[in-house]
Amino acid sequence: MRFYFSLVAALFFALILTEGCKPDAPGPGTTAYKLDIPKGLPAMPIPTDNPMTEEGVALGRKLFYDPILSGNNTQSCASCHKQEFAFGDNKALSLGIDGLPGTRNAMPLANLGFQRKFFWDGGAADIESQAIAPIQNPVEMHETLPNMLKKLNASSTYPALFEKAFGSATITTSMVMRALAQFERTLISGNSKWDKVQRGEASLSAEEERGKEIFLAEDKGDCTHCHSFGSTFSDFEFRNTGLDSIAIDAGRFLITLQATDSGKFKTPTLRNIAVTGPYMHDGRFATLEECVDHYNVNFKNAKYLDGTLVERKKGLLNAQEKADLIAFLHTLTDNEFLQNPKFAKPKD
Amino acid sequence: MKMNKQVSYSTLALILMVVTFSACKKEGSHSPYSKVTLSFENAVDDQAIKFGAIDYVNPAGNQYSVDLLKYYVSNFAFVRGDDSVFNFQRYLLVDASDSTKWSITLDSIPNGAFKALRFYVGVDSAHNHTLSQDGALDPSHGMIWDWKTGYIFFKHEGYYKNTAGVNTPLTQHLGTDNGLVKVEIPLNGIPLDGGPANMHIRFNLNDAYRSPNKFDFNKDGFHMSSGVGDVFWIKDMADNLSRSFSLHRID
């Protein structure tokens, strides 16, 4: 009896004394944020320790556009993630605050909430954790987290906004991460022409229709094998697509340290693909034509080349078929997303 | 037999009385629970750590300095003589340059004679795959990577003299789930009797480079748990670290 009592007591104390625990949920008096998910997209899992609130999303949006998060207060997340390019960048490699280029192409930010791993190599395990990487990266925003917190805590506006969203005016790193993640989860794209066709509100042209069939056909494009046809246009798995015979960037290997992951990168979504060039993890292709040519003839026989490409014959698509495929890809552009005022830089 | 049993009952009663009596003698020790402070004290063999000077020699004979030494210790457990285990899921980030960051107090450990103290160097995988955490695991303590989610469990930075005698940057960053280090320190029946106790744990940095894997910095001076050359090093370094902690004294 006594023993059990001690054990229970010990467990109880161990529980209440847990440090480094998950932070508390939202502040009192917040309003739950209702996500607007267009028909055809799946439900979005929301982490229990970061429920969406109106206050949190508004704060995250302000932070996303505020250069206060960078070392010399000149660069915000939006400097490399621009709404007109589906929150990607139109440069192959973006420059950080010191004018230095990174090694990878800035990724578009749409439908992040349906994904499980972030970055080209999946190095970030959740949206919250991703947010501090660019802030600290020397070739990006080049700021230290302690200094970022000092600036935010000293500002005349932020402590009150954090208090509204998270119930405490003393700003912590985790609150910044959670606010940015809440805003990023609202960046949902599901109103392209293709979506409207699904809903019976529009129809594909003959060319687009042929392109769709090529996208799906195993003996033609077979794009759907990885960029799964349907709601998210990717299964988000990591693959080597033979861009180089010997990978220059080790990709997923850098995270897992598994040899078989060399040169593997996350399969990106093809939503809004017409506006998110340059393409691939290093921005090597300027146009969709070059991307299609890659799959049609140019992919190389890398050691860990994905099995479907190992088996693929070269030159399956003629010029007309390539044009049709590209016409279909253009139907994935969602102008409402690119112009939605709720995602734009907040006025104040 | 019967006789014997009776004797043993009365012996037991006697022992109990003595224990109770002696427990009552000490001031403030009526509690059936003890409070233990673990203090992590850092050294290089028998030298105290002085920062910035190339004053130390590792087991492979390389001269080196300590400019930064930080590590996580976590998930402490006390194993009592009767094999019951008392767990504390807590995290301490030890910074060798700041004596206010060396200790952690674990309260309400049921009294008894203890066999062992267990803890980990690093962060368990349940807490190693998100950075949205507070306290010791707040990512602003400089113990995370920029490019992948996870904590750096152990960080030693400084310089070493390479074979040509040139001062060369030394970087030892251990992390990833495979690099979690399990440490068990025998307590050989040390009694906890309701009073506070301070256990001074000694971390010998040279032990991290000694055995079973003797590291030569000319070959192993740069590791960030992120490259081809780190796969085996992570395991080897974790092995060494598991033998680098000892109980120095209790007061």
What does it look like?
The complex is a heterodimer of chains A (348) and B (251). Chain A is an all-alpha fold. Chain A has two domains: 4-188, Cytochrome c-like domain (Cytochrome Bc1 Complex, Chain D, domain 2), CATH 1.10.760; 193-332, Cytochrome Bc1 Complex, Chain D, domain 2. Chain A is built from 14 helices and two strands; from the N terminus they run H-H-H-H-H-H-H-H-H-E-H-E-H-H-H-H. Chain A has a two-stranded antiparallel ribbon. The longest helix of chain A is centred in the first third of the chain and has 15 residues, at 2-16. Mean pLDDT of chain A is 92; it is low at 1-21. Chain B has one domain (29-250). Helix content of chain B is 16%, strand content 43%. Chain B has three helices and 14 strands. Chain B has helices spanning 2-25, 217-220, 231-241; strands at residues 33-44, 47-48, 56-57, 63-64, 68-80, 85-95, 103-110, 112-121, 152-161, 167-175, 181-192, 196-204, 222-223, 245-250. In chain B, strand 5 (68-80) and strand 6 (85-95) form a beta hairpin. Mean pLDDT of chain B is 90; it is low at 1-28. The chains are: A mainly alpha (348), B alpha+beta (251). The interface between A and B is large, with 46 and 42 residues.
